[in-house]
Amino acid sequence: MSTQAFAAFLQDLRDGRAHSELSAGLAELLAAVKDTGKGGTVTLKVKVKPGARGKDVDKVIITDVVTVDAPKPERGEDFFWVTEENELSRKHPRQQSLELREPVAPQPVQLKEVK
Predict the structure, then answer these.
(1) What are the CB-based long-range contacts (under 8 Å, 24+) for 45-49?
(2) In this structure, are residues 14 and 42 in contact, taking their beta carbons and an 8 Å threshold?
(3) For residues 26 and 41, is the Cβ–Cβ distance under 8 A?
(4) 18, 51, 69, 111 — which has fewest CB within 10 A?
(5) Range(s) of the domain holding residue 37
(6) Residue 107, domain member (yes or no)
(7) CA distances (Å), origin 115, targets 75, 112
(8) Is the Cβ–Cβ distance between 44 and 66 less than 8 Å?
(9) pLDDT in tens, 14-40
């Protein structure tokens, strides 16, 4: 019994579009793993069903689904204060503000030369 290589089948599936999607998905996954340092997956799901009813099946219908589960970069967190009016603020609502002044530049000092 001779069996067709899966790679050859994959090249024929949807005129090579499944193979192209897998290649693009792998490139996307590799870039995401490289950027995040986390792993992910590329999955090919192949569904085969008979083309006609009956026991003597000589035609099948094949569908495929390519999915890429690439790692996502961490988004980080942020915090805000909630005011009495239930609004968000970067400043603590009960903290007094401190008025800061620009520093006064010191006057240049005249140095005398020693001869």
Answers:
(1) 46/13
(2) no
(3) no
(4) 111
(5) 6-69
(6) no
(7) 66, 10
(8) yes
(9) 999 999 999 999 999 999 999 999 999
| Mean pLDDT calculated for residue range 71-75 | 91
Residue 3 pLDDT class (50, 70, 90 cuts): confident
Q: Is residue 59 part of a domain?
A: yes
SS3 62: strand
Report d(CA 41, CA 5) in Å as an integer: 23
Which pLDDT score is estimated for 40? 97
41-50 vs 88-89, strand pairing mode: unpaired
Torsion angle, alpha carbons of 20, 25, 28, 29, to 10: -140
What domain count does the chain have? 1
Q: What is the pTM of this model?
A: 0.63
